[in-house]
Amino acid sequence: MTKYVKTIGLEIHVRIKSKTKMFCGCKNAVALAPEPNINVCPVCMWFPGMLPVLNEEVVRLGLIGGMAMNCEVNKVSQFDRKTYFYPDNPMSYQITQLYQPIVGKGSVKTIVNGEVREFGIHHMHLENDAGKLIHAGGKTLCDYNRAGAPLMEIVTDPVFHEKEEVMEFLRELQKIMRAAWVSDADMEKGQLRCDVNLSIAPEGATEFGLRTEHKNVNSFSAIWRLIDHEYKRQLKIVESGWKVEQETRGWDDERWVSTWQRSKEDAMDYRYFPEPDLLPLELDDDFIESARATIPELPIEKRIRYLNEYKLSDDDARILTTDRALSEYFDTLVEKTKDPKKSCSYITTILLALMNESEDVNNISDLKFDIVELTRVIELVNGDELSSTNSKQVVEELFQNGWKADIIVDENGLRQKNDLWALEAIVDEVITNHEKQVADYRGGNENIFGFFVGQCMKASKWAGNPKIFNELLKKKL
Ligand code: ADP
Ligand code: MG
Ligand code: ZN
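^ Those are the sequences you sent over. The predicted structure of the assembly is below.
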């Protein structure tokens, strides 16, 4: 039987987090607005005679987002009018960029199943969002707080063939937008919305099949389910001798079914034409270069560096690069301690767990202690002055109350004793008090060696250096 391969291309809307909307001075605080229809004005409500004024911050952030995806910058771009009627859209048209978008071809690098991969971006253009319709009690309510909010529409090439690729790409895109401070790209808040195009073709075919488009699939897990479902649906169609129609479909994530919405519209239907109320957008070199200068080391570059140079695990490298502040904290800690492995484990196994449970400290920037203190903890452990077991207590204390590592160590009597003479006395005592076990060990049961170390640690109130106990015990037993 013929094997069918799926091909997927994405159209992703990312909300730009400028202070004000795209063409007026209204607040762009979509998720925060406490009431409907408060961040609106005659411009974004499109009252007759109003004229749009392009927000420079939107252009700058959009450009940064585009360059962070390695896209070619178009020094001259243009806005176009896309006409359609819908109650969430007071303009009856959308201002978008069809013919000459702000940035063209680009690519996003990520890791899929342990392999570094690059996925092509077709282009990214700027456009305004519509309002929101709320269907309740048999009525439809309109909230225009979002109308005129700025969006980037990122269009990928049809380059994905497996859903894992789609997922890793989207996660990477989210990280990029967050790291570049262009968007919080939170899917739950509608700051990242994804249209999924999917087609199938026999393996080895030189052309793609006809695609269906699913609009606004709004969570990672829904995208995952939709891809499986749509692949199977199309497969069933072609295997029964029919053809897949090019159409727009909707995904119902409660019932896990997709439904026909409309046959695919053509660009013609929207009567696109150059937006007469806005001049072409011309970017000069200074503007472009100063925007470029704000882009940090990309999350994927950091991740590759953590894997190759620091030999961190895949999971750790991924976790540390989810958030720009977190990875910068890690970078600083490594710079100070010169110990990437320990820096990583103190952050991922202790700090992140504490932040997870904490009510008031949820971000690395909220920590109550200076990074110098965590550096000191690692130094103490590496210098055999603090056991790694006890260091956890010190970090917890720092996390809860702030203060200084050395003082916490001393106040709690945790400074590790390396004094040979005192430790030897403890070892001797343990040996005399456990005649039976000693005989057992000397009789060949080496498994109980750990028991002696444990007894010594206990006798020293966990302040003795286990390495020294080990050596002494080996010698004396
Ligand atoms: P539009 O949806 O506006 O007509 P395009 O035709 O440029 O725009 O394609 C939009 C999206 O569909 C892109 O993300 C592209 O990668 C994807 N796409 C195009 N052709 C196919 C195909 N045969 N199979 C899957 N995805 C496709
Ligand atoms: Mg489309
Ligand atoms: Zn407004």
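The two ends are 71 Å apart (CA to CA). The longest helix spans residues 220-239.

Shout if you want it in another format.
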